[in-house]
Automatic annotation (TrEMBL):
Catalytic activity: L-serine = pyruvate + NH4(+)
UniProt key word Lyase: yes
Species of the source: Thalassobaculum litoreum DSM 18839
MF-aspect GO terms: L-serine ammonia-lyase activity; threonine deaminase activity
InterPro entries hit by this protein: ACT-like_dom_sf (IPR045865), ACT_dom (IPR002912), ACT_ThrD-II-like (IPR044561), Ser/Thr_Dehydratase (IPR050147), Thr_deHydtase_catblc (IPR005789), TrpB-like_PALP (IPR001926), TrpB-like_PALP_sf (IPR036052)
Family affiliation: Belongs to the serine/threonine dehydratase family.
GO terms classed as biological process: isoleucine biosynthetic process; L-serine catabolic process; L-threonine catabolic process
Protein name per its UniProtKB record: Threonine dehydratase
Domain ACT: 337-415
Keywords of the record: Lyase, Pyridoxal phosphate
Source organism, top-level taxon: Bacteria
Amino acid sequence: MTTSPETLPADLPVTPEMVEDAARLLDGAVLRTPLIEAPNLSATLDCALSLKLENLQHTSSFKVRGSFVKLQGLTGAERRRGVVAMSAGNHAQGVAYHAARLGIPATIVMPATTPFSKVERTRAHGARIVLEGRTVADCVARTQALIDGEGLVPVHPYDDPDIIRGQGTLGLEIDADGGHVDSVIVPIGGGGMMAGMAVALKARRPDIRMIGVQVDSYPSMYDAVKGLPNRAGGSTLAEGIAVKEPGVLTRRIIAALVDEIILVPERAIERAVQLLVEQQRVVAEGAGAAGIAALLHAPERFAGQSVATVICGGNIDSRLLSSVLMRGLVRDGRLIRLRLEIHDEPGMLATVAETIGKTGGNIVEVLHQRMFQDTPIKNADLDVVVETRNPAHVDEILARFVELGIEARLLGTEAGPGSG
C-alpha cells in the first residue's frame, strides 16, 4: 500500500517518507519480529488480538531500531568522538549494541540503583558505564558534563527525529503483516515509538485507531496532551514507560495523530505480565505488557475488534517475574495459605496432610506453631501453603476440615496490587 502524506498535518517533525527510509536502513540490522495471533488471550479479552514481539530483538527491546538509525547517520567526526546516552535499561542496551557493531565508542550514564544484570548486559556490548544518582533524572547533569567536557554526541531516548522514525518502522511491519487491524495499542513513555508508528500507520490507514497506554502513576504524555499539571511519580513495574517529562517532538505528533491515551492501574500491568506468560508463553517486562493491561482495564473499548499491540520489551528481572507469577497464583486462588487450629497430639499433622492430599491439593509449605500464637495450651496453629486448582477447590478443602471438626481459615486472601 502506498503512503498518502496528504492525510497528515504538514508541519510534523517526522514524515511517512522518513519512516520508510528508516525501514530501508534497518533491513538486516535488526530482526523483523513476528506479528503473531494470540488465540488464548483473544478468548479472554473478547477481541482478535495480535502481538508484535519486539521482546525477541537482540537486546529484547524495540529500542535497537531508533538507536541504529541515529548512529548510522553520524558523521565520521562524530563517530570518532563517541556517543553518550542516559538510560536505566533498554535504550542503554540498544545504543551500546549498535555502537559496538559500528565501531563507535559509547558511554552510558545509568542510575547507581540500576539492577546489576542490566548494567552488566550493557557493559557486555563494550560500553563505558558511568553510575550516577538514583534515577535517570539524576543523570542529566553528569551526561551534560560529558558532552561539554569530552565532546560526546548525545543520543536521546525518544525526542529525536531519527529515533522516532526508527521506532516508527514497527508500524510499517504491522501494516504489512496484520491485515485489517482496527486498533493498535502502543505503550507510551517519552512517546518515540507511538509517534513514529502513528505517522507510519495514519498515512496508510487514516481510519485506524491509535491507542496509547500509560501507567496511571506516570501519565506524563496524557497530562501534556490534555494541558493538565504533570502528576508523574512513584514506583511501578512498568519502569520502561515511567517517564516524567514527555518529548516535545513526540508530543506534537501524538496530539495530532493519536486517538486516545488510556491510563491503567499498577494491578493491570502485573496481571498482564502474568497472563502473557501463562496463556501465550511470552515473557514481557511491565512496559512491554502495557497494551495487554489496557485491554484488561478497558475491554469494552475493544470488544469484537481486530487489535494489535507491541510487546515492546522482555527485560524483566527473573526474581521480579517469579514474584509476579506467584502473586498471580494467590490472586487466582491457586495458591492459598490456611491456618488450622489443631489438637497438639501425635498424628494430627498426618491427618491434615492426608485430608489435603485426598482432595487433590499439594502442600508447598508447613509452619507448626505452639509458642507464639494466642491459642489454648493443648492446641497448636498450623499454617499450610497449598497449591489448588481454583477457588471451588479451595472451598472443597475447607469443607473437608469442617467435617473433621478442625477450624480452618484462609490467610492473606485480600486482593493485592496485582489484582485484576
